[in-house]
Amino acid sequence: MSLLLGLAAFVLVGWAVGEAWISVIGSAEREAMQTLGEHRTEPWITLARVITWAGSAFVLIPLAAVCCLLLARAGMRRQALGVALSLAGAMLISDLVKLLTSRPRPSIEHLQAVAGSSFPSGHATQAAAFWLALALALHGAPLSRKLARVGFGALLLSLGVAWSRVYLGVHYPSDALAGLLLGGAWACFVVAYVCRAPEHA
């Protein structure tokens, strides 16, 4: 029940912030995207198309399944549950906030096929939730000495995904930033809740 209430709160906050931000800064972002569309180059486009897969559900869902299985087999069932709930919840949060805000996509050439509204970036939300949750899950593992590297790598991947969505012309910068914040905060909330919840026999 606490997780469901938390999910509802994330959706409502995301919707409220999105509506406020779009009404205040929307026109400035449209101009910035037009400028970006005029200065994109092929090498950076290729890089963005590669990096964006790190936030795709087609990659993250099977990857999460493998990671959760490995964590569970290592006796880290709570951490496995945290990773699974982080990704699943992030996907649901981004979809619901998209429906509520209904922000149109940027009016420049989209270099990747997309559907639905623009705010927030689903890829950025999913990437932040999964990679951060995975980094947090490894905190108590024997590899804890490498946690800083894992966490830094998770941050870079999430930032890279957010940048790629903007560069490909399918999201505004605020869409990507909102996705990072929503996904990252949700991952922290889920992992903290799952790890402190009492174990049931």
Question: Can you tell me about this structure?
Answer:
The chain is an all-alpha fold. The protein has a single domain, classed as Vanadium-containing Chloroperoxidase, domain 2. Helix content is 75%, strand content 0%. It contains seven helices and no strands.
> Shape from CA axes?
globular
Radius of gyration based on Cα positions: 17 Å
CATH architecture identity: Orthogonal Bundle
Report the sheet-strand fraction: under 5%
Q: Please give the largest β-sheet.
A: none
What's the helix and strand layout?
Layout: H1 2-38, H2 42-51, H3 57-73, H4 77-101, H5 122-137, H6 147-167, H7 173-196
Helix pairs in contact: 1-4, 1-7, 2-6, 3-4, 3-5, 4-5, 4-7, 5-6, 5-7, 6-7
Gist of the model:
Helix content is 75%, strand content 0%. The chain is built from 7 helices and no strands.
Which structural traits does this protein have?
75% helix; mainly alpha; Vanadium-containing Chloroperoxidase, domain 2; 201 residues; globular; 0% strand
